[in-house]
Design a protein that fits this description.
Number of domains: 2
Order of helices and strands: HHHHHEEEEHHHEHEEEHEEHEEHHHH
Distance between the termini: 17 Å
Number of strands: 12
Radius of gyration: 22 Å
Oligomer: single chain
């Protein structure tokens, strides 16, 4: 945009928004519903600090939020199809074969018991157990930028075992309980089925489990997944002896095993940490059905140079992958946090209520696909 006039910039944005609305039009069978959806999108992109139904209705010139709520709760359109449109639109700009898929969750505080999936549960966004909904998201991160490309609402067992409650919240009958890792695997599988180009997946300790690991190995994708300090690691097939919990292994490393590297730029400059990487085994992928070539299973350790606090990651990568590459992959996790902050503060991700949940996409998540634009 450098050197462009304000008028030219506005016209470019307006033209792009018209194109986006044209892509969405096929989702709506009636013109009046398409018009309401267009106004809904305008409201998400508008200057109002709170993107509630009342606020969006006022911006659209409606006497109340009913038309806004109808789009999310009563309109007949396919939210997953909108997700796919948003994903494909983002990839037109961001696609890169070396991209990283970042999986993470975020919470939305709620009062009451009616909103779909709401329960007393831990959410990292609040740092405590609280009454909230949890959404699991996938962000696509490349050298060109980053954007959400998928989402799923986590339903606790207290919900999935209560069919009356599910029916009251308009949850489809075929939906059952799924762990957060299972939701993540489903999103990874959808990305692969849609031929989304990416080479790596990274996520925190919730997703550093065998189910996610095996899905990625079968797909020939590398990963850097967080694990708990108590996770055990063992080396084999000719690698230097390593045996014990991640924490024990880290404490036994010599000073020369650590390298100070940046995990990328943060709000206060480079995020510098001490890193150690231990190769545990090398496997011929073709023999095990895990892609092609020789792959390495390893343990990556990140240590804060100020307080010595460590974080641990299980890794799977092509043989010969450098420590710098693994650090760069792990460092991409900041992008989904940036996306959460932007979506919540500017696009109302956590401002909607029950109507948004009716599509099994969580608070504001029925609109999150449109907010990706």
């Amino acid at each position: 945009m450098a050197g462009a006039s304000l008028e030219a910039t506005r016209e470019l944005w307006s033209s792009s928004l018209r194109e986006v609305k044209a892509r969405m039009r096929s989702l709506f069978t009636q013109e009046r519903v398409a018009t309401s959806a267009s106004l809904f999108l305008d409201g998400l992109l508008g200057p109002e600090r709170r993107k509630t139904g009342w606020m969006r209705a006022e911006a659209a010139g409606d006497p109340g939020p009913w038309r806004q709520q109808a789009i999310l709760g009563r309109g007949h359109w396919d939210a997953d199809a909108l997700r796919d449109i948003a994903r494909d639109y983002a990839l037109e700009t961001l696609a890169d074969p070396d991209a990283v898929l970042v999986i993470d969750e975020t919470g939305f505080r709620k009062q009451g018991k009616a909103s779909c999936g709401v329960a007393r549960q831990y959410t990292g966004s609040a740092g405590q157990i609280t009454n909230c909904q949890i959404g699991v998201f996938a962000a696509y991160v490349s050298r060109h930028g980053h954007a959400f490309i998928d989402r799923a609402l986590y339903l606790p067992k207290a919900w999935t075992t209560d069919r009356a409650r599910l029916k009251a919240a308009h949850v489809p009958a075929e939906v059952g309980f799924a762990t957060k890792p299972r939701l993540a695997v489903a999103m990874i599988e959808r990305a692969i089925a849609a031929e989304v180009p990416f080479r790596w997946v990274t996520a925190d300790t919730v997703y550093g489990v065998g189910e996610v690991e095996m899905a990625l190995r079968r797909a020939g994708k590398g990963y850097v997944l967080g694990v708990n300090s108590t996770q055990t690691f063992n080396s084999w097939l000719g690698k230097p002896e390593v045996c014990g919990t991640a924490e024990t292994i880290a404490h036994g490393l010599e000073a020369k095993a650590w390298t100070r590297l940046s995990a990328g730029d943060g709000t206060k400059g480079e995020r510098l940490y001490d890193w150690a990487y231990l190769e545990l085994a090398e496997l011929e992928a073709e023999e095990d059905g895990y892609g092609t070539g020789l792959w390495t299973r390893g343990l990556l350790i990140r240590r804060n140079p100020v307080d010595g606090e460590c974080a641990y990651f299980t890794t799977w990568c092509p043989a010969g992958t450098t420590l710098e590459t693994l650090v760069a992959v792990e460092g991409q996790r900041w992008a989904i946090e940036d996306s959460f902050e932007t979506a919540k503060n500017e696009l109302g991700l956590d401002h909607n209520g029950q109507a948004a949940s009716d599509r099994l996409t969580g608070p504001g998540m029925a609109g999150i696909a449109t907010s990706l634009w």
